[in-house]
Amino acid sequence: MKNCILFFVIVLASRLDAQVTFTDSNLPIVVITTPVGQQINDVTRIVCDMGVIDNGPGIRNYLVNPYNNYNGKIAIEVRGSTSQQYPKKSYGFETQDALGLNNNVPLLGLPIENDWILYGPYPDKTLIRDVMTFDIFQKMGHYASNWRYCELLINGQYQGLYILLERIKRDNNRVDVAQLDADDLAGDSLTGGYIVKVDKLTGEVGYSWTSNYNNEVVFQFHDPEFDELNPIQASYMEDFIGNFEDVVWGPQLDDPVFGYEPYIDKESFYDFFLLQELGRTVDGYRSSSFMHKHKSGGAWNGKLHAGPIWDFNLSYGNADYCDANLTTGWQYNFDEICDFTSAIPFWWEKLLDSPSYRNGLKCRWDELRQGPLHTDSLHTFIDSMVVYLDEARIRNFQKWPIIGVYVNWNGFVGNTYQEDVNFLKTYIANRATWIDNNLPGICDLSVQESAFEPEYFKVWPNPFDGQGYVGFTLTEFAQMEFELIDNSGRSIYNIDLGSFEKGEHAVPIAIDNLASGNYIFLIKRDGGIFGKGKLSKK
């Protein structure tokens, strides 16, 4: 009997790993060649060769073309935790020079770095969920991993459609917190430069600590990792999160001085919450939930920011357990529905007890529903990706013939690719409507003085396309300016926005001939810096 079962597994595995004749693509082509006798594994990285063909927008890429985007060494491993159960693997790799040192390069036009991920979407048969969520978070004004679709070959064998992603790390072009040095042990220098996460104790796990209120809520240092931190730095960050939990749990939750507000950047917490809920992400809040903290004394004033967003392949109805495929109910109540070894931090629910927080959350949702979370905007993005991936996804599902096949843990199995896409679009529309009707809070800015931070500011759209708005809230009359600074620290654009009374304001701006890339923007009030952030140009 065991032999029969084994035979069935082998036949099934071979059926779900077919060979594909591949010669050219409208997407970039990535070719990896390992040394003879070595296989990519999840234990140790191996050094091998990688070539990338990218002839530019609208120009077809052929396998016989020269490697014109990258041609060199990488150190690569299989990555992921739960996802390693799937036959289509994802990979983490570093670009290296001939001496094995970091080689910072702009792979496929992404900002220069050396840490990358080749993500192979498998249970998400639309191939879209993750990149759509990253795109939304960027349009909300936050950093999310930049991405490019590509097709991958390893040792001459076609592997399918992949997504090149930026690995989450501290970097001026990624999570832009200050570098934490070994001697940053006191004062403002100690207070920022941290990326931490709430995550499961699976995969590659170093030092971790648990919440004082639930030992199933596990925190981990992501960048710097624990062994790169001085004990004073590690203790500072653990204590900061512990103090934040204490004030959220305590009687002074809403106190502007002794409550939650000095600890967190509310808008990032709003946006993180809203995306977890829109996707009803089955792993939401309790796994791959990143946070980062800036130093005190700057524009961000040492607050904890939620994000970057990560891991949405089992979201938007694509999981069949713990009510994750329903368009009703709140994901932050997950622990009341299912009992897992990892739990959701209590503060996502407890913060809603604060009138200022829930009213600000409601205002933020209403604002986003007119822009990046408008149903038409989301559907348009999905439709554009469907067209872009049309030929590559056919090859992908020839290699991995899973259309119409249940894959752990599909909440819906369409008989065609288009049925899977239609389900995603319908789920988003219905889920957003349910949130419209059930999100707590009252958004009435005429009476809600605390709906936004007193010094709320933003620039949108972000990424910027040359035409947009500068938004800010003033507590008194002020003269306002806007300035752009490039990566060399040079001021390249400065404009007097005018004089404004107390209240909320949105001022149109138009910047011609702005090159693609990342910039720092400054919003100035009466000559001093009022707000500071990163602005990307498409």
Structure commentary:
Mean pLDDT is 91; it is low at 1-15 and 447-455. This protein has a seven-stranded mixed barrel with strand order 2-3-5-6-7-9-8. It is globular, with a radius of gyration of 24 Å. Among the domains are: 15-166, no CATH class; 457-537, Immunoglobulin-like (Sandwich), CATH 2.60.40. Helix 5 crosses helix 8 (355-368). The chain starts with a helix and ends with a strand. The chain has helices spanning 2-15, 129-139, 187-190, 231-249, 266-279, 334-337, 347-350, 355-368, 375-388, 390-399, 417-438, and strands at residues 24-25, 29-33, 46-53, 61-62, 70-79, 90-96, 115-119, 147-154, 157-166, 194-198, 208-210, 218-223, 289-293, 304-306, 457-460, 467-474, 478-485, 491-500, 503-510, 517-525, 528-537. The protein has 538 residues and is an alpha+beta fold. It contains eleven helices and 21 strands.
State the gist of this model.
Helix 9 packs antiparallel against helix 11 (417-438). The protein is 24% helix and 25% strand.
List keywords for this structure.
single chain, 538 residues, alpha+beta, Immunoglobulin-like, seven-stranded mixed barrel, five-stranded antiparallel sheet, disordered N terminus
Please bin the fraction of helical residues. Answer: 10-25%
| Amino-to-carboxy terminus distance | 59 Å
Unreliable segments of 5+ consecutive residues: 1-15, 447-455
Mean pLDDT: 91
The count of helical stretches stands at 11
Shape assignment:
globular
Helix/strand-derived class?
A: alpha+beta
Rg of Cα set: 24 Å
**Biggest beta sheet summary:** 7 strands, mixed, barrel
Q: Which strand order spans the largest sheet, edge to edge or round the barrel?
A: 2-3-5-6-7-9-8
Number of strands: 21
Q: Proportion of β residues?
A: 25-35%
